[in-house]
Amino acid sequence: MEKSRKWKLFLGAGILAVYAFASLLAFWRMPERAAAWSEDTVPKRIALTFDDGPYPNLTRQLLDGLRERGVKASFFVVGENAKAYPDVIETMYEDGHLIGNHTYHHVQLTEVGEEKFKEEIRMTNAVLSEITGETPTFIRPPYGSWNKKYEEELNLFPVLWTVDPLDWCCNSSQCVYQRVVTTVKENDIILLHDCYETSVTAALSIVDSLQAQGYEFVTVDELLLE
Ligand SMILES: [Zn+2]
User: Fold this and answer.
1) Under 8 Å between Cβ of 211 and 43
2) I need a labelling partner for 100 at 20 to 30 A (CA). Which of 83, 142, 144, 210 fits?
3) What is the pLDDT of residue 38?
4) CA dihedral of 38, 189, 70, 199, whole degrees rounded to 10
5) What is the pTM of this model?
6) What distance in angstroms lies between residue 78's CA and the mean position of ligand 1's atoms?
7) Residue 199 in contact with residue 176, Cβ under 8 Å?
8) Hey, which residues are catalytic here?
9) pLDDT of 82
10) Is residue 133 over pLDDT 60?
């Protein structure tokens, strides 16, 4: 074989080897790259829920903060409060939050008998649908006490929670904030009450911190109905 031909063959084999090695390397790194991609582009979803409102000043303060941050939350409101402050419910609705039932007088449903059980829920649904034109389909039963027997007839889906910082026994917003951000994970439903200033302040700090960690805040229907 003449010298230059040998040299060409040698060069060709070398190029082939480099190409094969590069392909192999790319193949090996593929799962790693896919994982990095999904972490960067698919946000971790989470839901903030607020019970017992609306309270005119605090709930408005909360709604303003959520609007500034582009966050949708879920509000389980007490019928008599909604009746007293329909304008707050209107803003809540216009801002795109989910509005759910939390009974008319904040009663423990399993303690009041069948008739009162249904009445508490229907009265609240009636007040809310009069204000927003929409009948709620979600209920958070006070104290988490529910009877599945009436679920179908009332056409309501109960929503409990996965993170409860016990905000009612925190005397600072820092306490609520710490209890949430140190335990929270993807798909959690966080329970807060918009009747405490500490909870409203904490909620907005929680949003800022979790948004920076790549969380996306959604309403509970988006987490539950999939
Ligand atoms: Zn409650």
Assistant:
1) no
2) 210
3) 52
4) -140
5) 0.82
6) 8
7) yes
8) 51, 193
9) 98
10) yes
